[in-house]
Structures are given as structure tokens and as C-alpha cells.
## 1
Amino acid sequence: MSNQHAIDRAILPSVRAGGLTHYYAACGSLSGGVLQRSAHLPGGRRFFDLSSLTKALVITPLVQWIAKDRALSELKLCLSGESGPSVSLLSLLQHEAGLPFWRNLWIGNLARPEGNRSAALARLDLDLHAPSSFSPSYLYSDLGHILLSMWLEKETGRSLPELYGDFLETELKQKRDLLFYTPTEEQKKRSIPTAYCRIRERWLCGEVHDENASALGGVSGHAGLFGSGEGVETFLLHFLSSSQGRGFSFDQLPTYEASRRSFLGWQVGMALDTPPLPSSWILGHQGFTGTLFWWEPRSACFGLLLTNRTMGGRQVSWIHKLRQTVFALQCKELGLERTCTLPL
């Protein structure tokens, strides 16, 4: 029996309470494709602000693609100009360079929808110029992925949106109109609003919610990607089935370690299991706007939940349990038993 209606029953109370207005959930496997979809997409709107899924869906595959056979641990990037201390691409990708998790790059740079990229980058350079307080260890950092996107553009001489679109089309044989940066006016009409921004004094619809990404012109390595549920599904199926994806998910995957927090830019666990199963990899990523995807290499199963939960506020108490419940229902659909955390 399909759990589609159970997923709807779990999510719809948040819609009725005004915590979110749109959602899309799906799960499947590499062998069976997408097995189940549940969605509430009124008004014909389908494009979500994917927020930090950008790190996993854009930066992880692009860095590996451009690095090719070069070891990420040996490729170095200067933190500030040519004279600053250097860190490896691997440490940045896995949030192990010890960079601060966040710095305010947007203040004074949000007057225009296209932001003020040069001013924001100058502020970032200033913040990274004195790294004496940086301690190489795991610390989730937006700044590291901003630096990785700058490395990609410098290495290729191309903009991040152009480079990513080319990767989708040439490497994954996927159209670029389901995953993209900076929505066109037509795409904005089909984008899902995330919130009213009191700083920018406007509704955000087809405009990135993250203030730093907005200050950077909507294009960054830590946020800025928009896409539909079908776009994320297609990416996961194509990427994980590709030679690069197979190397990522199987050849390089080490023995399970409960203490590991990140693997090549994909988060580990994300506290979806209650309690977590021993020796079981769950890889994926969460996004601040209410997005998430997960992947279990052992079973080759995946799932996603896309929402605009920021309509209910920047901080809401219910999103974590909702994610756990949808994850458990998707696992049940796929024959991977987990325990639901909300009554249905």
C-alpha cells in the first residue's frame, strides 16, 4: 500500500496552519526510478528556492568534475588574495577548514535585486585576511562554499550558472530548465514565494532568500539554486548513475563512522533516523528554506522533501519532526523500515 496519502496527512496540517504553502515529496531507487510522489503546488507554481541544497547539487559535482583526476586534498586555495594562507579544496568541501560558519556580507548591499557582488566579496576578503582564529576542524561553513564557487569560476573562466548548465547538459544529459540560478521573469511566475523580507521590503518569489547569496547577485556556492521536484529527482537519478556519481557514492565512500558529519560536501545523517541505525550511511543535504534530499548507498534508495517553510518564520519548531516523519514514510514505501515521529 502506498504511503502517498500518509505523507500528505503529515504535511497538510503545516499548510493549513500557514507554516508553508507548497510542498513536493518523492522517493525511489536507482533501479526502479521514482516510485512515489506527493505534492501540493497551488497556482501552478513549481520552482523552489533550494537554499543550501546548492552546496550538494552544484558545488560537490562541479568541484569533482573540474578537478578531474587531481586529488582534492592536494589542490589548494588561498583564503585571501594571493598572499593569504591556503587550504585544500577537500577541507573546504567537507567543512573541515575551520572557517567561521557565517559572516554578514549583505549589510548595505541589498538595495538592488541583483545585489552588490564586488562589495560583498570585498567584505569576505577582509574577514578572511586574518585567519589566526581559524582552527582546522569540522565547522559547517557557508564561506567555504562561496570560496569554492570562486575557485570554479577562476579555474574555468566561466560563470557558475553557465558552468552548471553545461555540466547538466553534457555530463548528465539533463535539461537546464529544471535546476538553475537567477530565474527569468517567466520562471519567477512559476516560483514559490519563501517569505516577506523586512530587510528588502518585498516578497521574495524567484529571488533567493539567503541575504548573503542575494548580495552576491543571487549566484553563489552556498545558496542560490532554484529548481522543481522533478529537477532534483532527475539530478539524483542521473548523477548517482553516472561514472562520477558511482565513484562518489561507492568507490570513495569509507567505512561508516558515526562521528563523520560531512562526506565531500554531502551531510551525513541529518538526524533523520530516530535512533540512527548502526553502520548505515544516510547522505544528503538540508536547506534553510525547508528543503532536503537523502540517499542511502547500501540500498541505492533516495528521497526528497521540498517546502517553503520560511513562510512560517525564520525559526520554526516543527520542521525537524516533519522531516523525520516524511523520511520514515518514504523508507517504508521503499522497504526500509524507520519509525515515524508524528501521529498520522
## 2
Amino acid sequence: MKYKINNQSIIKEDHITKPNEDGWELNLIRYKTEENYKNPVILCHGLAANKHSTDFGEINEPEWLKYSLASYLSLSKNDEKLSFDCWVAQLRGRGKKITFNPENNPEKYEWCVDDYIEKDVPSIVNYIKNWYLTNKKYTPKIFWIGKSMGGMIGYGYAQTNEGKKNLKGLITIGSPVAFEYNSILLEPIARLAPRKMFFPINVSEILKKKQIYADLFKRAAANKKNIESNILNKYIDIGMNNTISSKVLNQFLLFYRHNDFCKYPNNPWLYDLIGKIPLFKKIVTTYSYKENMNKIETPLLAIAGNNDKAADPREVRFCSTNVNSQDVSYINFCKKDGYSIDYGHLDLNLGLNAKNEVYPYIYDWLKKRSE
């Protein structure tokens, strides 16, 4: 559908990928203007989130114009005619069209973070590449922007041969990898899932039913001085209203328990027992994304918030200092560096001044590396 915004014409399209290995069809939203840079941009949400993580609100609404990163990147600036062809990704279990109903197909809700990296991301990237080949007659390299877990799976994909071939650049926003520092946001969310049982779970519904959990989440999720309370409440209501697999939360507990971003072990109980012993670690874990960060050669922008209680700035700095790319940028949005406030986790994209401070930095980084 075509819209007129600030004297610009912008088109919103809904796309659905072909079924991946597990049969999941993934929902994509595309925003395009009349003239775009050659390289498309994929924006991916975080752990319990959906499209509202990077594309808050609905097109042409005041909240969309104020908070959506997709909105900011897809609308051209006053001094620039070109803008970015933005594709908002939604991983399995999210979007308007859900392939498998959790009540009828609970067995389909037994995935982990590795499935996002190995199945969902390739499905999304290949769909966009094929769309370009069919409609534009060329196959572009692609920018990946990931918020929180969306950045983590970007790191995982960038370590693969396919990722090295397809990615033009990688931007992560509050994305941990080291898991060496306590998180008073992600750890409590991860503990909502019991061990040895995998089932569909909706974090938004839990927070709305348990006020004590909601209060704890709100205190940890953002710098309360940098976000409107109604926006935070709405984000919980619509931005986290998804049915996901409890196995994902369980895997995050393993990350924190073992200070490692790694594949889900074949024997989690054995991994817990001897996984911290260096001699046995490689026997019980198949692959550590953390220990293979040096495989990443893609240009990287790693964004931190100085008051981020999910991804400590030291976590984000670890990422930027352990990749093998020749083009690495790291920024910590903090008051001492001239920004309005020490940013928290959610306010890096939903903050009062995110549009004026965080988004222009992302736009400029992309612009310098675009064709």
C-alpha cells in the first residue's frame, strides 16, 4: 500500500518467505521509497520481541514516525534524495500469519537460538536476494541490523561462509556475546522457563498477569528517565505479544550459567556438570559463537547503552574487539560523551531522543558503506 509522508511517497509491502527446513514461513515487512541505495537493510527484533522492536507502531502514525528505526531509515532526509530499502524481519512464531498454531502444533515450538541462525536467517536473506534478482535483475549484499538477540544471531550468521558472502555490514544494538556480566533483565526472563521441558510461552501474557514481574521488567528494561511510561507499557502489550519456544529462554540460562554464547548442547545436564572444566568443555559443547567471533570479517557497528542492564557496555566492547573485520566501530551512548543521557536497553530504540541521537549515527554508518 502506498502512503504519503512528509511529501514523500512510501510503499509498505507484506511478504512471506518460502517454508524453511522446519516448515515455518516467516513474515517480512518492506518499506520502500522511489529511490533507494543499492543495498537493502534487514532489521531484526530481540528475544521475546516482534517487529515493534525495530519498527514500533504502524505506518503513518505519530509513534511510528517518532520511534520506528525502519521509518527513520526508509524516509529520505532533507539533504539526501536516497533512502534505504528496509525489510523488517519477524522470526518464527511472529507476524500476522503464523504458520503453526501453538495449541494445535505445540511440537513445532521446540526451537532454540541455533534454529534462528541456521534456518530463519538464511530463509530471510535468500528470500530478499531472490526478490532482487527477480525484480531488479541483480543480487545485492545486505546490511543486517539486530536489536539485542537480533544482533546475536547476526553475529552467528556472520561467522558462516554464507554470511560472509551475503552481508555488506552488521549493526548490533545492545547485543551481548561474552555473558560474563550479570544481566538483571535477560536472566529473570530466561528463568521463566523450566529445565527439561519445552513448550510455547508468551512473555507478554506472563508480565500482564504477574504485576511483580512487570514492575521488575520495567525497572530493568530501560532508563526510566529516557522513555515514556505509556510507550513502555505499549511495548510490553504489543511488542512482546508472541508465542515463542521456552527452549530459547532455557538456552539463555545456559549462556549465563557458563558465560558463553554457544549452540544448545546435546546433553544439557552433562554440560552443566562439567561444561566449565576446560578439558571437557569442547566434548560437551558442539560450537561456541563467542569463541569464534574472530571468523567475522563483515564491517561492524556495535552499539551500547551505558545504563543497559541486558547488555553491559563491556559485553558490547568484547564483540568489537574480537572480530576479524578491518572496519569496526563501537559507540556507547552515554552522558559523558555528550549525549542527553545514559541509555538503557529498550531506550536505544524507544528512547525520548533515540531518533535524534542513535538513529542518525546508524544512518550515517550505513550511508558511508552503501552503494
## 3
Amino acid sequence: MRNIFIIFKRELKSYFNNPLAYVLIIIFSLLSMGLTFVIGDFLKMNDASLTSFFFFHPWIYMIFGPAIGMRLWSEEHRMGTTELLLTMPISAWQAIVGKFLAACVVLAAALLSTISIVFTVYYLGKPDGQMIVSGYIGSFLVGASSIAITCAISAFTRNQISCLLVAVAVCFVLVLAGFPRVTEFLRPNFPALADIGNSVSFWWHQSEMARGIIRLQSPVYLLSLIGFSLYLTGVIIRGKRS
């Protein structure tokens, strides 16, 4: 744990010692709030819930997650410090977990920046607190999954822009796979494919949890995706190390 904390602290400082983390947090807050009030018609819906707020999160994470995670290993490769980092008395998985947790702190800070909308909902009515909590949990897990995927992709390349573009494309597919218009198009002729789309889709799992429906399959799938992505990162990093 000590080695993980050392890497975590190092990575967290690198985020907050430059404007990157602050810019990302501000952009996330403005996007999530702006889309909710302008496109989601939050005030006109007369509904004391955050359904319209969480509706946009998977789409935001399609870019936000890769923007956070694109530097995790690409920057190390570009600067030639990957080998130096791994020659320290730490294992590859400790470095991966430390970096990932630091990125998740930035994600958590971004979500925390939207807490004012919770107070707004409680001011306007009597919302279901369980739905709000489960929505935030789902949002965090989807965001963490997009970061983990980007972490694996960043282990392949030293170019952050390439990492960003590939990660956005992968996350886009994982969001779109369960979007209602896509599944409604597929279901009449390809019902099995529509079900698979829902089971792997960020949008579907997020929307279910935002409605207060926490099926075991949603956290299990998202946590498994995170675990697999970090494992894949370890395989790639160890391959480069050898």
C-alpha cells in the first residue's frame, strides 16, 4: 500500500500542479449543468429528480474520461520515464493502481463540483434520495470505466492525442450500444444483439442506476471492465518492460 500511495501522491500532484485538472473539472461542471438546464429543460419538467442530469453523463464521459486518462502512461512513454519508474522498488500493478486512483480523484472532484444541483432539487421538491445516491454511484463507475479503458490505450502509445482519439471512439461505441434508438432499431430483427448492446453499454447501466435501479449486473460489469482494463494495462507495460 505504501508504494501505491507514493505513486498516487506523485500523480495527483502532477494533475493539480498545472491547470489541467482545474480546467477539466470546470468544463465537466459547466457541461453537465448546462446540458441539464438548457437541453434537458430541468426547470420545465417539474420533476424533483436528477434523471435529466444523469442522462448526459455517459456522453460527457465519452470525452471527459479519455481527457483525464490520456496522460497516464503516454506521458511516461514520451518522456522516457516508464523504464525509470518501473526500476524503482515497486511492481507494475502498484504503479497502475496508484495512477488510476489519482485520476479517479479528479473524477470525484468533478462530480463534487455539481453538488449544487442536489441542493436545488431538494429546494424545489422532495426527491428520492436513493435515486440520487445510486445515480452518482453509477456516474462515478461509468467515469472510472472510461478512465480505465483510456489507461490501457495510453499504455500502447506515447502520443496523447492518438490515445485520446482512440479512447473517445471506444467509449462512443460503448455509450451508443445501448442507446434506445439503436436498440429499438436492432430489436425487431436482432433481439440478441440488442440485449448484448444493453449489457455492455455505459448509457444503459447509467440510466438504470439513475432511476434507482441497482441491479447486481451493473456494478459487477463496470467493476469487471475496470479490472480487465487495468489488467490489460499491466500486460502491456510488462511487455514493454521486457
